Amino acid sequence: METLRTVTLVLGTVSVGLVAGVYYGWAVSVMPGLARTDDRTFVAAFQQMDKAIVRAPFISIFLGSLLLTAAAALLHLGSEHRDGLPWTAAAFVLYLLTLITTGRFNIPLNNALKEAGDPDKTDVAAARERFDAATWVRWHNIRTVLCVFSLVCMIVALML
């Protein structure tokens, strides 16, 4: 059981770290870079990146992190392993909040940009304005911070 607890905690920590890294990369390079582009480039590039990320390699880690943090918390319910429970439970809640933020704010904005259609056949300035990059970035930064704090909690639990 100790091996299962450790493996789950390690895998959960790594998976949350991978998602935090993706979020951080978007926050410090992708969105600032896109902000410097013209409307057509912004719409076309964002649509293609959204299409590329919504695939099994990312989605399995994105959703799997929630399952792994939940499993890590459950495996710390035993009285002799309670030191890690508050940390894994906090990591789970923080990570869950990243998913809620994503679903409530970022995905609808992504979908609005996707629905604009082919950048060569649409009003890309209007599509970009409807996307509302400032709102997307604000909520993205919030989910980035939540995910980093979730990672910190998993690291603390791992150290215990």
Helix proportion of residues, in percent?
Answer: over 70%
Give the oligomeric state: single chain
- Rounded mean pLDDT is 96
Q: What is the helix/strand order?
A: HHHHHH
> What coarse outline follows from CA principal-axis ratios?
elongated
Stretches where pLDDT falls below 50 for ≥5 residues?
A: none
Structure summary, number of beta strands: 0
Beta-strand percentage range: under 5%
The largest sheet, given as strand count, sense and whether it forms a barrel, is: none
Structural class category:
mainly alpha
Number of helices: 6
Q: Taking Cα atoms only, what radius of gyration do you get, to the nearest Å? A: 18 Å
Number of structural domains: 1
What's the N-to-C terminus distance? Answer: 16 Å
How is the topology of this model organized?
Layout (H helix, E strand, L loop, with lengths): L1 H34 L3 H15 L2 H19 L10 H31 L8 H8 L1 H27 L1
Helix pairs in contact: 1-3, 1-6, 2-5, 3-4, 4-5, 4-6
Would you kindly provide a brief summary of this structure?
The protein has about 160 residues and is an all-alpha fold. The protein has helices spanning about 1-35, 40-55, 55-75, 85-115, 125-130, 135-160.
